[in-house]
Amino acid sequence: MTHNSAKADPAPLGLMGFGMTTVLLNLHNSGIVPMGGAILAMGLVFGGATQFVAGLLEYGNRNTFGMTAFMSYGAFWLSLVVLLFLPHWGLVAPSSPALMGSYLLMWGLFTAIMTIGTLRASRMHQVVFSSLTVLFLLLGLAEILEQPMLTVIAGYEGLFCGFSAIYLAAVELLAAQPGHVAAPVAVMVPPAEVAA
User: Fold this and answer.
1) Which of 57, 84, 79, 81 minimizes the C-alpha distance to 69?
2) What is the CATH number of the domain that holds 41?
3) What burial class does residue 119 get, using C-beta atoms within 10 Å of its C-beta: 0-12 exposed, 13-18 middle, 19+ buried?
């Protein structure tokens, strides 16, 4: 996406926060590891707060897409951890499967809109956002239909999504360092530039 070259690019930080947290949560969803404090702490700090900060930095770079993506997904991680904690603290009843599924499907709708915004970005941006759309759809349906096997399938798809974001973060981070060869992300050329 577009960045002000006079400032540091916060996108690798936000993408890494998103990717690493997504991988950890989907290790749980796929049944590889149980839910634990490491996942929740990562959701609060790196997936939540750090992504939110990356979004604020994107605001400073006048990057509306980056600001919206990082602040929104930072808020997603914070809200998810709060959703899991509130019932344990006895403050609210746990969300019903229908309500939790609706929550996840709303995030899927938001992500589908964001995916449209990647159509003029690199192929890797498209991979990250489209695989995240599928992940939210699978997780939402798993909750609403109460089908645990769909959660496992979503977990493996989520691992793909998370590692895709980590790859994109690494490419963007290393490309900004002198002497590093850029790895492929299949950059899209806007139609106006092709015509020129």
Assistant:
1) 57
2) 1.25.40
3) exposed
